[in-house]
Amino acid sequence: MAVTITPEDAPAQPTGINVIVVGAGFGGLTAAIECHRQGHTVSIYESFPELKVLGDIISFGPNAGRIFYRWSHGKIAAKMRALSIDLSSYGFKIHKYDTGEVVAHQKTPPGDPTAPMFNGHRGELHKVVFEYARDELGIPIHLGQKVTKYFEDEKEASIELEDGTKVTGDIVVGSDGVRSRARTLVLGYEDKPKSSGYAVWRAWFSNKDMIADPRTAEFCNNGDTFNGWIGPDVHFLFSTIKNGSDCCWVLTHRDEHDIDESWSFPGKLEDVFKVLEGWDPMCKAIIEKTPSIVDWKLVYRDPLPTWTSKNGRICLLGDAAHPFLPTSAQGATQALEDGVTLAVTLKRAGKENVPAGVRAYQEIRYDRVRAVQKTGETTRDMWHKADWDKVKKDPKSIELPREDWIFQHDAQKHAEQVYDDVVKKFT
Ligand SMILES: Cc1cc2nc3c(=O)[nH]c(=O)nc-3n(C[C@H](O)[C@H](O)[C@H](O)COP(=O)(O)OP(=O)(O)OC[C@H]3O[C@@H](n4cnc5c(N)ncnc54)[C@H](O)[C@@H]3O)c2cc1C
């Protein structure tokens, strides 16, 4: 049966560029979808054997929404909207940690429907994007294929799978996450993460016990909510999603323990309660409803000197190139911007000039990513070192920053606009 491809998603003129993407996270999937949109031939190799709904809360800014909205005539964004938090009436309430008083109530600004924001379950949103790439666009996604080696010469790049199979293309995109193997090849050494001095306990659960308790029912009975309790060196963010049916919290605190970047490392509720001694009792009332938690150590990496290999045939993308602190709420969004940019620069460079396209990708992205990464630290420090007298006088000083230079960025337009100038600089 013939597959109908809508004009918007029909690949542009084929470029003949064969792109191999490693990793089917948001970074790898977006790189593949955008390469398809720009006319490249693309396939994905992913180590997980099947699609599973994993993780908990993830955030996408309007600069990601603008990208999703272009897929399938807005249908992908619409599916993601139904799974995401709706704070149009509730906004964000910021509490002082001990008294519990609301010190700031940040309203949700009217959004641009062509650049929506999404906060929802990482696994549920990931499934929407994964199925779009595989089922609607027909991008080959090879699951259960762990990439063990990377090679390149001046003319091509290859990967080797666990069973020894070698796959070759014009370029390999290493979007293999925070523990990237591709990064070792690109750098020529192993980049060791350091403790950032912080960790996050995280949880996602149904509202059943929350609505049974009159102290906490208010968070689930009237639609979606978002509340944050800010204290010295600790912040606790709690949201209810999908019309209050799902509950989610993240608690960032000091932690110098062993580094582990896994998403499934279990944590203990008694440790959470110890950190929250002296806090508003509402925090405990929420946390005690939680069936299980994940303990995620936040690591810090020095900025990589480069994201591209010696011959310009392998590049890093997303978390493999630049892990983010959750307080930036931009980690996944910046991975998306990477994918969009790379697809454009490869098209502009053409098959004969792939290394120039790869170099231009890094040039276009590097400084912006660094600047956005820093916002993760500034927001965390602004909260953890809050001066409560100042906050009383100026409640806005503790609000979550919403910066135009981050949110209004159109990665596709920007890459098209600056490509020629960027390439002139290095040729
Ligand atoms: C299971 C999981 C759960 C997560 N949950 C959350 C969450 O709840 N909240 C949040 O904010 N962020 C979460 N993240 C991280 C978040 O998705 C990323 O920070 C962000 O989306 C950038 O994505 P990425 O594609 O660069 O990296 P990732 O999302 O980490 O994707 C990397 C992909 O590469 C694959 N991979 C790794 N090594 C190999 C290899 N050798 N061969 C083939 N494939 C390989 C991995 O299986 C993974 O699918 C999670 C990531 C994962 C993998």
From TrEMBL:
Entry keyword set: FAD, Flavoprotein, Monooxygenase, Oxidoreductase
| Regions crossing the membrane | none
Name the Gene Ontology molecular function terms of this record: FAD binding; monooxygenase activity
Show where the FAD-dependent oxidoreductase 2 FAD-binding domain sits: 19-47
Top-rank taxon of the source lineage equals: Eukaryota
Q: What positions does the domain FAD-binding occupy?
A: 133-372
Q: List the InterPro entries hit by this protein, alphabetically.
A: FAD-bd (IPR002938), FAD-dep_Monooxygenase_BioMet (IPR050493), FAD-dep_OxRdtase_2_FAD-bd (IPR003953), FAD/NAD-bd_sf (IPR036188)
Gene3D superfamilies per the UniProt record, alphabetical: FAD/NAD(P)-binding domain
Tell me which family the UniProt entry assigns to this protein: Belongs to the paxM FAD-dependent monooxygenase family.
This chain's protein is named Putative MAK1-like monooxygenase
Q: Which organism is it from?
A: Mollisia scopiformis (Conifer needle endophyte fungus)
Could you read off the lineage of the organism from its UniProt record?
Answer: Eukaryota, Fungi, Dikarya, Ascomycota, Pezizomycotina
